[in-house]
Specification:
By secondary structure, this protein is of the alpha/beta class. The protein has one domain: Histone deacetylase domain (Arginase, Chain A). Helices cover about 35% and strands about 15% of the residues. It is built from 9 helices and 10 strands. The strands form 2 sheets. Strands 2-1-5-10-9-6-7-8 form an 8-stranded parallel beta sheet, sandwiched between helices. A two-stranded antiparallel ribbon has the order 3-4. Strand 1, helix 1 and strand 2 form a beta-alpha-beta unit. It is globular, with a radius of gyration of 17 Å. The structure holds zinc ion.
Length: about 300
């Protein structure tokens, strides 16, 4: 069965100021990487747009109204020090939600075994009532909530391996007993949350803080000893990945020491667990990753493992 790649050029109309790490070239790099001959078997689709109703499945009406209001202005608005909205940011963010929903439908309909969605802005820092850390809406959390509307899905597991804590996803699914959220992240680091005693209302959250300098082989051990047993014990019907590539040793925003090929091994482990637990169903969605050549290489390894999985 196929691996699907989902994106939309409209996402690149969301433009951050010059020098901002979350830039248009990130998506361009990923798309040119996945257009090479080695990915000719990848099935490419244009992302559909998400709806306001999707946003309101987990975010407050005040938050949606603020984003709508800010995105009517010609000039860009700062929602925090580094989260910017311009006229085209609202559709871009809605394509992020739509792509994850579409990928879930394709996987559940048997048209694909797994999928990688590459959209911008990213989502895992956006909280119920707050945009932050380059993120506007919680794409993956909303995707998990949407997945539960499928009759054959009663439980969803999310692994967030971005180098930053997925505080937004944690905030959005805190009270969702059928969604397991696992975040591994460098600590201390932005946003400052993600301690191991933050466990959710139903013990449905596992935070795995990592020390500065942690390399990929140590992380693979942490997966075997802590992360994979938690997922197996939960026994999800589908797995979602918040795929950030900023734990790479060359990333400018953090200090972990993962190599590009570590993303192959991490993804391969997740494919094994998805095969064992949930008929290989897995949907991955881009979060961070700010060194362009490291991002391109790491995504190539990630998608190669998804295609082989
Ligand atoms: Zn990040």
């Amino acid at each position: 069965m196929k691996t699907v790649f989902i994106s939309n050029p409209e996402c690149n109309k969301h433009i951050n100021p010059i020098g901002h790490p979350e830039q248009v070239l990130r998506l361009k790099t990923i798309i040119s990487t996945l257009n090479s001959d080695s990915f000719s078997n990848l099935h490419k689709k244009k992302a559909e747009i998400g709806s306001f109703q999707d946003v309101l499945s987990l975010h407050s009406k005040d938050h949606l109204d603020l984003i709508i209001e800010k995105s009517t202005h010609l000039e860009q608005s700062n929602l925090d020090a580094d989260t910017i909205v311009n006229r085209d940011s609202l559709p871009a963010a809605l394509y992020g939600i739509g792509s994850v929903k579409q990928a879930i439908d394709l996987v559940m309909g048997g048209e694909a075994k797994n999928a990688f969605c590459a959209t911008r802005p990213p989502g895992h820092h956006a909280e119920r009532n707050k945009a932050m850390g380059f993120c506007i809406f919680g794409n993956v959390a909303i995707g998990a909530k949407y997945a539960l509307s499928h009759k054959s899905i009663s439980k969803v597991a999310i692994l967030d391996f971005d180098v930053h804590h997925g505080n937004g996803t944690q905030n959005l699914i805190w009270n969702e007993k059928n969604i397991l959220f696992i975040s591994s992240h460098q600590m201390p680091l932005f946003p400052g949350s993600g301690y191991s005693d933050e466990t959710g209302a139903f013990n449905n959250i596992l935070n795995v803080p990592l020390r500065s300098g942690t390399d990929g082989s140590h992380y693979l051990k942490v997966m075997d000893e802590t992360i994979l047993p938690k997922i197996e014990n939960f026994s999800p019907d589908i797995i979602l990945l918040s795929a950030g590539f900023d734990a790479h040793k060359n990333d400018p925003l953090a200090n972990l020491n993962w190599l590009s090929e570590d993303y192959y091994k991490i993804t391969q482990k997740m494919c094994f667990v998805a095969e064992k637990l949930c008929k290989k169903r897995m949907v991955s969605s881009l979060e961070g990753g700010y060194n362009l050549s490291a991002l391109g290489e790491s995504v190539a390894f990630h998608v190669k493992a998804l295609m082989e999985g």
